[in-house]
């Protein structure tokens, strides 16, 4: 059985994070990992994590407290195309939620995520772990909320 863990992105693994890739039809759904690693340098209260199955990197995530609404937001979550469809994304998302719950010392009530409405795989996985769709964003993205 695969053991999925989150590890910090650092100088030893950031290049591997940048090389992770999505299926061609998914690339328009999410910013690149390289962009995300740059963006996080300008965000307070955000973490980047590499997702591993045993010792093999399989994905990337970025999450933290959004300064506009004060909620936790998962800004990025991706599983490399080679590892999709194996239940690893669900296991990794549950670890992200668990980490946020441990981090939540100020009793923030929810975790928010948004995704492209055509990203059916993400929609199904988020629903399976407990996210509930809310409204659409100004750019047409679907918002979903996980109550802590």
TrEMBL record:
PROSITE patterns: GNAT. The keyword Transferase applies. GO terms for molecular function: acyltransferase activity, transferring groups other than amino-acyl groups. Residues 4-148 form the N-acetyltransferase domain. Keywords: Acyltransferase, Transferase. InterPro entries: Acyl_CoA_acyltransferase, GNAT_dom, YpeA/RimI_acetyltransf. Gene3D superfamilies: 3.40.630.30. It comes from the Bacteria. Pfam families: Acetyltransf_1. This is Spermidine acetyltransferase. It comes from Priestia koreensis.
């Amino acid at each position: 059985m695969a053991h999925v863990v989150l590890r910090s992105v650092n100088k030893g693994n950031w290049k591997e994070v940048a090389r992770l890739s999505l299926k061609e039809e998914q690339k328009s759904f999410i910013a690149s990992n390289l962009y995300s690693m740059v963006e996080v340098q300008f965000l307070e209260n955000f973490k980047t994590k590499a997702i591993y199955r045993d010792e093999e990197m399989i994905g990337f995530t970025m999450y933290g407290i959004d300064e506009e609404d004060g909620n936790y937001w998962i800004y990025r979550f991706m599983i490399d195309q080679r590892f999709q469809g194996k239940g690893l994304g669900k296991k990794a998302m549950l670890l992200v939620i668990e980490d946020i719950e441990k981090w939540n010392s100020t009793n923030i009530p929810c975790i928010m995520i948004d995704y492209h409405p055509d990203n059916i795989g993400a929609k199904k996985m988020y629903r399976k772990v407990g996210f509930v769709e809310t409204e659409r964003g100004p750019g047409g993205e679907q918002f979903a909320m996980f109550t802590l």
